[in-house]
Amino acid sequence: MIRILFTGVGRRVELLQAFRNAALVLNKDLMIYGADMTGTAPALAYCNYVRRVVAMKDPRYIDGLLSICREDNIDLLIPTIDTDLLVLAENKEKFERIGTRVMISEPDKIRICRDKNNTSEFFVKCGLRAPMPVNDWREYAAGYPAFIKPKDGSSSINAYKVDNVEALKIYAEQIEDYIVQPFVSGREYTIDIFCDWNGEPVSIVPRERMQVRSGEVLKTRICMDDQMIDEAKRLCKEYKPCGPITVQFIRDEAGTDWFIEINPRFGGGAPLSMKAGARSAETILKLLDNEKPEYQGDIADGAVYSRFDQSVCISEGKRRIKGVIFDLDDTLYSEKEYVQSGYKAVSDYLCGGYEEKLLEFFAAGKPAIDELLRELGRESEKADVLRIYRYHKPSIHLFSDVRETLERLSAKGIKTGLITDGRPEGQRNKIAALGIEKLFDDIIITDELGGPQFRKPCDIAFRIMATRWKLPTSEIAYIGDNVSKDFQGPRQIGMGAILVRNPDGIYYEDNEVINEITVVDSFKKIGDLLCR
Q1: Which are the contacts of 146, defined by CB distance < 8 A and separation ≥ 6?
Q2: Residue 332 contacts by C-beta under 8 Å, 6 or more apart in sequence?
Q3: In contact, 312 and 45? CB cutoff 8 Å
Q4: Which of 59, 83, 366, 419 is deepest in the core (most CB within 10 A)?
């Protein structure tokens, strides 16, 4: 299991989706944690777990993050906005001492980026061109138009083009700590760079900023220009980035590149470079497994990407529910009961007397069947034993009030569905043993859609169910037991969410209550809630 904590997740939905897809491609188990002050950031709906933090400038911020990383066994912390870059870089060793790596460059390099004076000087040191700034408007003598902006600003906030000294004076009085530099006319570009732990480039993707809103790109064209790539390599040689950085520059009409700023983090448009072939998220997961990445030069040169906004429901409010989808395992019946049933089948196959031993291994968190076969010296029979376990006819029973609740919902005209993960034969055996097939309008076993990649948190099964029912997702609720994976898909497409907290459930200890997910402890309460 790989656990990654993102700070300042905000609107970084595309970035989190890139990590989800990378884990799927590499067949790695990934848990994403999102840190946020208010719990209302849209990207939190794409995280497995939400962690509340104080403001990034609060003196308690680092201690709070350290506590989260320690308690949740976080493998990697990735910052996504400028605000906490320096404080994280300065405290990097504290995180490493508790086993959490921080994907951040060295503090002296972060300081270069946070002060535009230092940034321009650094570009020149790398042999690149940069419009040189001054810190007092009265000293500016490089001609007009000029450009004035905060010394440590970002997202184009309080950044202005000015045409004369009178306008420059007015803006200088409004911006507390500014720089003034010559305005460079031309096409704007960003270079998304990703490096390994030692600052060696893994991917370099220049792209034109064709359309921008509030400093973030809306439309971009991949431009694998040799001059730009060479300039990026020169910068990396001096900077030695840890992980992602984005570099912005302007190419004038003469073909000269004027470098403006460096952001030592994933830029807002970085997922667009990933779509073009820069597999940065995959590389991070490989680096965490100590795999050495190869340089990624196969980029879709000339590809054009355009972005759009999409809403995520943060607070459900009052709504009329016309359809309810249920999870199966540990939601409608006890998964521990299924495990006991499977162990009995295995024990019988092995000539009996091994059920208690298997349960002891299971309770200790060990691979029970592997451990038993090793003790018995019968490892060669593993494939047969697993087949017995997975495909046996289970002895399992519905939780109290499940059948009555399903019948009650149906009587109210509310559609009912079942979406469950797992091998089709095993899941079908469970459904048959519980005698519930006729209680649902629709049943989807995600593996039957095309394989394990359709399992939760993938949202495709939920979209299919809503389409079959011809209902808007806002009128459908999903009921499950596992916070880490059950609710991401339905919440992302606007469905309601109800967590059944079963004290005997396998995931009970991991199921802390998440904001905006309704919590119940019995099926009778579900019926009362949805049929009122």
Answers
A1: 140, 161, 162, 168, 180, 181, 182, 183
A2: 326, 398, 399, 402, 434, 436
A3: yes
A4: 419
Please name the helix (run of DSSP H) or strand (run of DSSP E) that holds residue 148, with its range, or none.
strand 146-150
pLDDT less than 50: residues of the chain: 511, 513
H/E run at residue 342: helix 335-349
What's the CATH fold of domain 323-334+396-530? Rossmann fold (3.40.50)
* Topology alike, domains 106-129+189-311 and 132-183: no
The CATH number for 132-183, chosen from 3.10.180.10, 3.30.1490.20, 3.40.50.10470, 3.40.1010.10, is: 3.30.1490.20
Spatial neighbors of 258 by CB under 8 A, at least 6 apart, are 129, 130, 131, 184, 186, 249, 250, 251, 252
Predicted local distance difference test score (pLDDT) of residue 511? 47
| Alpha helices (H) along 2-129 | 13-26, 61-72, 85-90, 92-97, 107-114, 116-125
The CATH code of the domain at 2-104 is: 3.40.50.20
End-to-end CA gap in the chain: 41
Q: What pLDDT, on the 0 to 100 scale, is given for residue 469? A: 97
What is the rounded CA–CA span in Å between residue 30 and residue 509?
Answer: 19
List Cβ neighbours of 138 (8 Å cut-off, separation of 6 or more): none
Superfamily of domain 106-129+189-311: ATP-grasp fold, B domain (3.30.470.20)
Interval 187-215: pLDDT, tens = 999 999 999 999 999 999 999 999 988 77
Domain boundaries, the chain: 2-104, 106-129+189-311, 132-183, 323-334+396-530, 336-391
Q: How far apart are CA 295 and CA 283, in angstroms?
A: 10
What per-residue confidence (pLDDT) applies to 317?
65
116/18 Cα distance (integer angstroms)? 31
pLDDT digits (tens, 9 = 90+) for 147-158: 998 888 766 688
- DSSP-H helix ranges across 175-310: 226-239, 270-275, 280-288
Laid out side by side, the sheet with 304-306 consists of: 257-263, 244-251, 187-195, 201-213, 216-222, 304-306
Of 144, 127, 149, the closest CA to residue 257 belongs to 127
Give the closest residue to 49 by CA, choosing from 5, 16, 79, 80. 5
What was the pLDDT predicted at 459? Answer: 92
